[in-house]
Amino acid sequence: MPNLRNKDVSNEDLEIIFNQIEKLEKSFVTEAGIYLKIGSAEKQGALLSLDLFVSAIVNRSIALMRGFLLLAKNDNYLSAVPIIRMQLDNCLRFYASTLVGNLDEFFLKYLKGEHISNILDIKQKKMTDTYLSKELDKIIPGVRELYQNSSAYIHLSNIHSFAHTEIVKDKERAIGFKIGYFDYYSIDKKVDFAFNMYKSSEILLHLVRSWTQEKGNILKIK
Length: 222
Known about the structure:
By secondary structure, the chain is mainly alpha-helical. The chain has one domain (11-221). Helices cover 64% and strands 4% of the residues. It contains nine helices and two strands; from the N terminus they run ααααααααββα. The protein has helices at 11-37, 49-73, 77-80, 82-97, 103-111, 129-139, 143-151, 158-164, 187-221; strands at residues 165-169, 174-177. It has a two-stranded antiparallel sheet. A hairpin with a 4-residue loop joins strand 1 and strand 2 (174-177). Helix 4 crosses helix 6 (129-139) and helix 4 (82-97) packs across helix 7. The protein is globular, with a radius of gyration of 20 Å. The model has no long low-confidence stretch (mean pLDDT 87).
Protein backbone atom coordinates (compact mmCIF):
# COMPACT_ATOMS: atom_id res chain seq x y z
CA MET A 1 0.00 0.00 0.00
CA PRO A 2 1.15 3.57 -0.51
CA ASN A 3 3.86 4.70 1.93
CA LEU A 4 2.28 8.13 2.23
CA ARG A 5 -1.36 8.28 3.25
CA ASN A 6 -3.76 10.90 4.49
CA LYS A 7 -3.91 10.69 8.27
CA ASP A 8 -6.61 13.33 8.58
CA VAL A 9 -9.46 10.85 8.20
CA SER A 10 -12.36 9.61 10.31
CA ASN A 11 -14.78 6.74 10.65
CA GLU A 12 -17.05 8.63 8.27
CA ASP A 13 -14.40 8.36 5.55
CA LEU A 14 -14.15 4.65 6.24
CA GLU A 15 -17.91 4.20 5.90
CA ILE A 16 -17.87 6.08 2.60
CA ILE A 17 -15.34 3.64 1.17
CA PHE A 18 -17.31 0.68 2.53
CA ASN A 19 -20.35 1.99 0.66
CA GLN A 20 -18.31 2.37 -2.52
CA ILE A 21 -17.19 -1.24 -2.28
CA GLU A 22 -20.81 -2.35 -1.81
CA LYS A 23 -21.84 -0.40 -4.92
CA LEU A 24 -19.17 -2.18 -6.94
CA GLU A 25 -21.00 -5.48 -6.39
CA LYS A 26 -23.99 -4.12 -8.34
CA SER A 27 -21.65 -2.88 -11.06
CA PHE A 28 -20.11 -6.36 -11.45
CA VAL A 29 -23.53 -7.99 -11.69
CA THR A 30 -24.70 -5.41 -14.22
CA GLU A 31 -21.59 -5.86 -16.37
CA ALA A 32 -21.95 -9.64 -16.32
CA GLY A 33 -25.48 -9.26 -17.61
CA ILE A 34 -24.19 -7.11 -20.47
CA TYR A 35 -21.40 -9.39 -21.75
CA LEU A 36 -23.54 -12.52 -21.40
CA LYS A 37 -26.22 -11.00 -23.65
CA ILE A 38 -23.84 -9.90 -26.39
CA GLY A 39 -24.64 -11.68 -29.63
CA SER A 40 -27.85 -13.03 -28.20
CA ALA A 41 -30.62 -14.48 -30.28
CA GLU A 42 -33.95 -13.76 -28.63
CA LYS A 43 -31.95 -12.78 -25.52
CA GLN A 44 -30.61 -16.30 -25.08
CA GLY A 45 -26.99 -15.15 -25.35
CA ALA A 46 -24.01 -16.32 -27.38
CA LEU A 47 -21.81 -18.01 -24.78
CA LEU A 48 -18.04 -18.07 -25.36
CA SER A 49 -15.53 -20.06 -23.35
CA LEU A 50 -14.10 -16.94 -21.76
CA ASP A 51 -17.56 -15.93 -20.53
CA LEU A 52 -17.28 -18.85 -18.12
CA PHE A 53 -13.77 -17.82 -17.05
CA VAL A 54 -14.74 -14.19 -16.51
CA SER A 55 -17.93 -15.16 -14.69
CA ALA A 56 -15.96 -17.33 -12.26
CA ILE A 57 -13.73 -14.33 -11.53
CA VAL A 58 -16.73 -12.03 -11.09
CA ASN A 59 -18.35 -14.43 -8.62
CA ARG A 60 -15.12 -14.74 -6.67
CA SER A 61 -14.63 -10.97 -6.63
CA ILE A 62 -18.08 -10.40 -5.15
CA ALA A 63 -17.44 -13.02 -2.47
CA LEU A 64 -14.11 -11.40 -1.62
CA MET A 65 -15.61 -7.91 -1.37
CA ARG A 66 -18.30 -9.19 0.97
CA GLY A 67 -15.71 -11.08 3.00
CA PHE A 68 -13.51 -8.02 3.33
CA LEU A 69 -16.42 -5.85 4.47
CA LEU A 70 -17.60 -8.43 6.98
CA LEU A 71 -14.16 -8.74 8.56
CA ALA A 72 -13.29 -5.03 8.37
CA LYS A 73 -16.56 -3.94 9.93
CA ASN A 74 -15.76 -6.36 12.75
CA ASP A 75 -12.29 -4.77 13.12
CA ASN A 76 -10.59 -8.00 12.08
CA TYR A 77 -8.09 -6.41 9.70
CA LEU A 78 -5.45 -9.09 10.16
CA SER A 79 -7.87 -11.40 8.34
CA ALA A 80 -9.36 -8.77 6.01
CA VAL A 81 -6.18 -7.33 4.51
CA PRO A 82 -4.98 -10.56 2.79
CA ILE A 83 -8.21 -10.43 0.78
CA ILE A 84 -6.82 -7.37 -1.02
CA ARG A 85 -4.07 -9.59 -2.41
CA MET A 86 -6.67 -12.20 -3.39
CA GLN A 87 -8.62 -9.57 -5.32
CA LEU A 88 -5.41 -8.57 -7.09
CA ASP A 89 -4.98 -12.24 -7.91
CA ASN A 90 -8.29 -12.00 -9.77
CA CYS A 91 -6.93 -9.02 -11.70
CA LEU A 92 -3.74 -10.84 -12.66
CA ARG A 93 -5.55 -14.04 -13.72
CA PHE A 94 -7.96 -12.03 -15.81
CA TYR A 95 -5.17 -10.03 -17.41
CA ALA A 96 -3.41 -13.28 -18.33
CA SER A 97 -6.32 -14.12 -20.63
CA THR A 98 -5.64 -10.94 -22.62
CA LEU A 99 -2.03 -11.93 -23.31
CA VAL A 100 -2.65 -15.25 -25.06
CA GLY A 101 -3.22 -15.93 -28.74
CA ASN A 102 -5.99 -18.52 -28.39
CA LEU A 103 -8.66 -17.86 -25.77
CA ASP A 104 -10.31 -21.28 -26.08
CA GLU A 105 -6.97 -23.06 -25.64
CA PHE A 106 -6.19 -20.92 -22.61
CA PHE A 107 -9.57 -21.69 -21.04
CA LEU A 108 -9.21 -25.44 -21.61
CA LYS A 109 -5.81 -25.47 -19.92
CA TYR A 110 -7.26 -23.52 -17.00
CA LEU A 111 -10.25 -25.87 -16.82
CA LYS A 112 -7.94 -28.90 -16.70
CA GLY A 113 -6.21 -27.41 -13.67
CA GLU A 114 -3.01 -26.19 -15.29
CA HIS A 115 -1.47 -23.34 -13.33
CA ILE A 116 -1.66 -20.08 -15.24
CA SER A 117 1.91 -19.37 -14.15
CA ASN A 118 2.98 -22.26 -16.40
CA ILE A 119 1.04 -21.07 -19.45
CA LEU A 120 2.94 -19.05 -22.06
CA ASP A 121 1.71 -15.74 -23.43
CA ILE A 122 2.10 -14.61 -27.04
CA LYS A 123 5.67 -13.52 -26.24
CA GLN A 124 6.43 -17.06 -25.03
CA LYS A 125 6.80 -15.81 -21.47
CA LYS A 126 5.51 -17.76 -18.48
CA MET A 127 2.66 -15.81 -16.92
CA THR A 128 3.86 -15.81 -13.33
CA ASP A 129 2.38 -13.37 -10.83
CA THR A 130 5.55 -11.28 -10.93
CA TYR A 131 5.47 -11.10 -14.73
CA LEU A 132 1.75 -10.32 -14.87
CA SER A 133 1.96 -7.62 -12.21
CA LYS A 134 4.81 -5.91 -14.07
CA GLU A 135 2.96 -6.07 -17.40
CA LEU A 136 -0.34 -4.84 -15.96
CA ASP A 137 1.49 -2.00 -14.21
CA LYS A 138 2.45 -0.68 -17.64
CA ILE A 139 -1.26 -0.16 -18.35
CA ILE A 140 -2.47 0.64 -14.83
CA PRO A 141 0.39 2.27 -12.88
CA GLY A 142 0.50 1.36 -9.21
CA VAL A 143 -0.62 -2.25 -9.60
CA ARG A 144 2.89 -3.59 -9.08
CA GLU A 145 3.40 -1.65 -5.84
CA LEU A 146 0.00 -2.65 -4.53
CA TYR A 147 0.74 -6.28 -5.39
CA GLN A 148 4.08 -6.25 -3.58
CA ASN A 149 2.81 -4.50 -0.46
CA SER A 150 -0.36 -6.56 -0.10
CA SER A 151 1.61 -9.79 -0.53
CA ALA A 152 3.38 -9.05 2.75
CA TYR A 153 0.12 -9.71 4.59
CA ILE A 154 -0.40 -13.18 3.11
CA HIS A 155 2.50 -14.94 4.81
CA LEU A 156 3.71 -14.43 8.37
CA SER A 157 6.11 -11.49 8.38
CA ASN A 158 7.43 -8.69 10.61
CA ILE A 159 4.24 -6.77 9.81
CA HIS A 160 2.28 -9.18 12.00
CA SER A 161 4.72 -8.72 14.88
CA PHE A 162 4.56 -4.94 14.66
CA ALA A 163 0.77 -5.09 14.76
CA HIS A 164 0.61 -6.32 18.35
CA THR A 165 3.79 -4.96 19.94
CA GLU A 166 4.93 -1.55 21.11
CA ILE A 167 7.97 -0.11 22.87
CA VAL A 168 6.95 0.74 26.43
CA LYS A 169 10.25 2.13 27.70
CA ASP A 170 12.86 2.75 25.02
CA LYS A 171 15.80 3.28 27.35
CA GLU A 172 15.04 0.15 29.32
CA ARG A 173 14.25 -1.77 26.15
CA ALA A 174 10.85 -2.77 27.48
CA ILE A 175 8.38 -4.10 24.94
CA GLY A 176 4.67 -4.62 25.46
CA PHE A 177 2.52 -6.95 23.38
CA LYS A 178 -1.05 -8.21 23.22
CA ILE A 179 -2.40 -11.71 22.78
CA GLY A 180 -6.03 -12.15 21.84
CA TYR A 181 -8.63 -10.39 19.71
CA PHE A 182 -7.75 -6.70 19.54
CA ASP A 183 -8.32 -3.76 17.21
CA TYR A 184 -4.70 -3.17 16.22
CA TYR A 185 -4.90 -0.49 13.54
CA SER A 186 -5.43 3.28 13.61
CA ILE A 187 -8.29 4.80 11.61
CA ASP A 188 -5.98 6.17 8.91
CA LYS A 189 -4.54 2.70 8.34
CA LYS A 190 -8.02 1.19 8.17
CA VAL A 191 -9.04 3.78 5.58
CA ASP A 192 -5.89 2.95 3.61
CA PHE A 193 -6.72 -0.77 3.65
CA ALA A 194 -10.33 -0.18 2.60
CA PHE A 195 -9.28 2.18 -0.18
CA ASN A 196 -6.84 -0.38 -1.56
CA MET A 197 -9.56 -3.03 -1.53
CA TYR A 198 -11.79 -0.62 -3.41
CA LYS A 199 -9.07 0.19 -5.96
CA SER A 200 -8.25 -3.50 -6.51
CA SER A 201 -11.93 -4.21 -7.15
CA GLU A 202 -12.27 -1.17 -9.40
CA ILE A 203 -9.29 -2.32 -11.49
CA LEU A 204 -10.93 -5.71 -11.89
CA LEU A 205 -14.22 -4.11 -12.96
CA HIS A 206 -12.28 -2.17 -15.60
CA LEU A 207 -10.81 -5.43 -16.88
CA VAL A 208 -14.21 -7.12 -16.95
CA ARG A 209 -15.56 -4.23 -19.01
CA SER A 210 -12.69 -4.75 -21.44
CA TRP A 211 -13.99 -8.29 -22.01
CA THR A 212 -17.44 -6.89 -22.81
CA GLN A 213 -15.85 -4.83 -25.56
CA GLU A 214 -13.61 -7.64 -26.77
CA LYS A 215 -16.47 -10.12 -26.97
CA GLY A 216 -18.40 -7.66 -29.11
CA ASN A 217 -15.42 -7.37 -31.45
CA ILE A 218 -15.01 -11.15 -31.66
CA LEU A 219 -18.63 -11.78 -32.56
CA LYS A 220 -18.62 -8.99 -35.15
CA ILE A 221 -15.60 -10.63 -36.82
CA LYS A 222 -17.41 -13.95 -36.88
